[in-house]
Amino acid sequence: MTAYLLIGVLAAAGLLGLLVARSPIAARAVAVGASGFVAIVATGAMLRTSMEELHETAVGLQFGELVVPLDLGTSRTTAAIAFVVALVTAAVQIYSTWYLASDDRQGIFAANVSIFSAAMLLVVFSRDLVLTLIGWEVMGWCSYLLIGHWSRKASARRAALKAFLVTRLADIGFVLGVVGLAIGARTTRLDDVVSTWAQASTCDALGACTGPDAVLRNVLMCLLVIGVLGKSASVPFQDWLADAMEGPTPASALIHAATMVAAGTVVLGSIFPVLAQAEAARWLLGIATAITMVLAAVLALGQSDLKRLLAWSTVSQVAIMLSALASAPAADGPGAGLFHMWSHAIFKSLLFLALGLLSVIVGGTSAVALRGSAMRSRLGRWALLFGLLSLSGVPILVGGVSKEHVVEEVYAGAIAAGPGMVVLLALLLTVVLTAAYSTRAYLVVAELIDVPATIAAEHAVPESRRHRRQATLDPAGRGAANAVLLVLSVLSIVGGLAITLRLFEVGESSWTWTAVTVLLIAVGCGFAFALAREGDPGVRFVRGHSGWFDRGFGADTAYLAVARPVVRLARVVAFLDREVIDGYVQGAAASTRIAGALAELGHRAERARLGVWLVGLGLILVLAVGVLPWR
Amino acid sequence: MALIVLVGLPLLVGAVLVVAGRALADRVSRGLALAAVLVALGVGIGASWTRPSFDVAWLPELGLRLHLALDGVSVPLVLLTVVVGVLVVVLARDSMPEGGSPATVLGCLLLVEGGALATFAARDAVLFFVAFEVVLIPMWVLITRFGDPHDLRARREAGHRFLLYTVIGSTLMLIGILVLVTSAGTSDFSELLSAGAELPRGRQLTIALLLTVGLAVKVPVFPLHTWLPSAHTIAPTVGSVLLAAILLKMGTYGLVRLPLASVPEGFAVIAPWLAIAGVVGIIWGALVCLVERDLKRLIAYSSVAHMGFVVLGIASGTEIGLQAALYGNLAHGVISALLFVVVGGLKSRWGSVDLGRVLPALREVAPHRGFFLILGLAAALGLPGLAGFWGEFFAIVAAWQPADLADIAVMRTCAVVAAIGGLLAAAYSLRVANLLWIGDAHPVEWSLDEEMEDSISSSSDHSTDAGRGAGAGAGSGSRELSTEVETSGGERLVLLVLSAGIFGLGLMPWWAMDVMAPSIQSLIGVRP
Prior knowledge:
heterodimer, A: mainly alpha, two-stranded antiparallel sheet, two-stranded antiparallel ribbon, B: mainly alpha, globular
């Protein structure tokens, strides 16, 4: 019941919002009202749901012998994730009423956000592979619309296209994985899929095997993992997320911090028992996320634009969540990764929204522009501080609690079989780098260091002057935005209580690892401070190669190198279609016409004598036919 | 009785209108046509509910009967035909193609509709063939006489190619039908289900080959598809809508009724080859769409790609596959109709829609038309929640586990290739969206406000397609194209109905599935 209500209200708000998009007040009212209602209901559901699963069977389909029940279900963890999605949606809708107040398409934006959240909640509540796929794809589409919201800018159009196509490429794997799993289990119901595929495969001496085909299971889970890597912006699909910062900051806060990129964690979490059995898939996920988390953290440290720094930070943190799923031993479950997803949603959306507030004040998101901006807004400064502390993993704060549990889970996996050791090393290195870039970000905005104006801000995302003007004109709206930041800040501090509320199934925390984490954070901060003696630590870090960092080490060029041959092939195909295949048809048509023309010519040139001879010939033939049989 | 009215009324009124031509006043012919299609709509809905049957002897010496009836497979297509019939008449009232009298146009539309209804309602193989052929000439008239007014030679070319190809296909189909009917001793579909399956394997294979190749022209299946792009480009908007929404459906319907149902063993031998042709068509069509400049031609090639999924579903030989194929068939009819109405309106105002030049962004100059365009493109790429998803996804599911496990390697490869086709579909759909919906041109007449000043002056330009120009510099190109391209009242009504259809088929698939399921089981289940 709750699942239907939440998804239905948001979807209806989205469609209604499209109809009333012309009137900003109506659109805002619909959007804020719906998302607020959903957030309240979701909070209640989270606090109320007991540990058991509740299943709600919708109208199902039957395709031959494949059963497609289209079920939704709730559990403790699911309700918690739904809560955080609803919370961030409401925060974004309220914040956007201020941030996009002078945007002529704000109604459309609000409606798209509503539809997007409905799709994410569909993924969260889904207990059916087809519903998961539906929510997954619709989210991708809404992100195309939201990233390209300011579609009058060429760079925004390109970024939206890139995001959709890169994730769609990865989704080939996702679709095939879902297809294979569903066929194997003869149903798309998640419980049955898990119970069919999660059995251990054993073969006795005679070669008779019970349980599912282990090779096929590995292949299918690898395909599914590839799909997840795409949406989560992990190597090799990582480059779309930084470019997606072309979208408005509230959209980035929702999609690229809190929900879409984390949807992969939710999906793999729901199918975790099968993943735990698929060795190859775990290694694939583990290696990819290990590379990603370090790479992204390095890139974050060297970005010249702070919004892109947060984007790369997201890539790194999402890789951390997924690595927990890759390494966790089968008995432990996906709790640690899901808890980190939950806390990341809170502190990352806080960071994006706070950065948005500051960028409006100064009119840009580059490090140069944001220098010292925190001094102009007390709330902005404190919000940013708590967000960055959470990001670094300082204990007590929600980010610290979740990161610590991830570290412990990965350690547990490291001493068991699997990719745990590689992941653990990468994770520890990432903790250091995360602390370093968080410190750098704070040093820049709090103007504790000097940022030379000669940094090339090639890929900076300039928020327009219009927003700067509006910031001073709308104190009431600003109040709403401030309230949102306040709520998120508080949650980022006390969110660690989610553990005491037993919302996620995680292990016990250990003091050793807490101490190790604190030590690593100190190392990272120290590193940043050491570099800060000569100005922006980021500048010192890149040593003149800031362009290289800003372009993500050339990943975009690599993507184009994949896309260009396809277009060249397309030209060849078009040529063949026109000249070769159609050539036969044209030839046939031409030869028919020529034959007709020749016949016409022959007919005209016919003389009477020829006709008489032909008639005579015909007569002889007929006589012969008539006479010969008598013989 | 209802079926005779359903089939006969459009044919009769169509014939009257064509014969009368200019003798009838404009208003009379339009009113007559509208009345005829509305009656057909009502009767069609009623007949789909009650499922009557009509059976009289036609040529007793040859054992042929005039047998009309509707079953689960034909009902959705009949409903699609009668609804599209109303929509094209409404559309024709708004934008009548030039080249002759309106009565002729409307008459041809009605004849096509009547022929299609007769095809879907026919229960006798020879009657099916006759009805199949009825739509040929009116369609040819629409293409050659009322097509693109700019280029006479192109019209004749397109008409020739359409006629030549379709007649060759029909000839092969006719030979196949005659061999089937004489071998099995009956021409009734219900009897052929069992009689055909008892034929020897070699005979079944011959029949299946003839029928499949003949019908593959109409579907169209790669490599017999080249008639479709030129036909679509030249045909007027109403002609394109009919062609996409009705004629192509007849081909797939024929594939299901004739080779699949009647000669299953023979068809099972051909099935892997059909699947391969289908997925090659998906990739081929999608690749051409990546570089095609004429938008109508692009939508035609995307039809080839969509039909590839339908063919893949049929070739899998399972119930899932057939259900997916028929659902995808239905969905494609609605989606293509929508896209052709949107693009047809642009073409009539701009002369041609060339994606190679800078076009005004529809989102800015004509938001309603832009909305329908992006809806159609989203549906074309198979977005869930819209009509195209169910057919495409479950065709891949069906190919993963085909009926004949001997072919499983081939079919699974086809499933993987089809999934890659999904990516290419997204690529070309968004290519069109980025060129036409959000576009590269801002009409220079607008007062550039600060946002656009910022973007034009400061953003480093990342435009993709090389050689297209960028930013404000290319704005002058759009001055030649009118920005008054918003939808008219009639167009908007038509587009709303089609959009409702797309959402309905996307969000509530069980309606059509439940209607089709029993008939599908009977078609597949009679296998030995």
